[in-house]
Amino acid sequence: MKKQMLISLLLMVFTNSYAAPADTVSAKIIALEKAALEKWNNGDPSGYLSLSASDVVYFDPSLPQRLNGIEALTKYYEPVKGQVHVDRYEMLNPLVQATERMAVLTFNLASYQGEKASRWNCTEVYRLEDDGNWKIIQSHWSAVQPQMNK
Fold this sequence. Notes:
The chain has a six-stranded mixed beta sheet with strand order 2-1-6-5-4-3. Mean pLDDT is 87; it is low at 5-20. By secondary structure, it is of the alpha+beta class. 35% of the residues lie in helices and 37% in strands. It is built from three helices and six strands; from the N terminus they run H-H-E-E-H-E-E-E-E. The termini are far apart.
């Protein structure tokens, strides 16, 4: 009986100690993404640029192919400065799947300008850098397809 209680206690301790870091990583990744979105929604792409690693790759539905590297992404974002204005947004269904040094964030985004909504799917792959900061190494945005009338 004592042995079973000891095993149960140890299982509870180990289970709880491993659950907390995953929750912490999820909260951190989502907070980083929301901070970058806040800037983006006010015409400032610097949030995403500072969050991106030097070897970031980027997919966007308006591009014919992948962008490689922070220099290409910076050049692509340059004309966007001051052009994006979002009244409000909703990050829907965020999910972070993480290992010790990698995390994948997926979510749906609804951005509103007045009553007009734009809907997106997003996947961001984050890497924990040696300096302890999470950086985006892969970003993929796609427009949500409208529901077709039958």
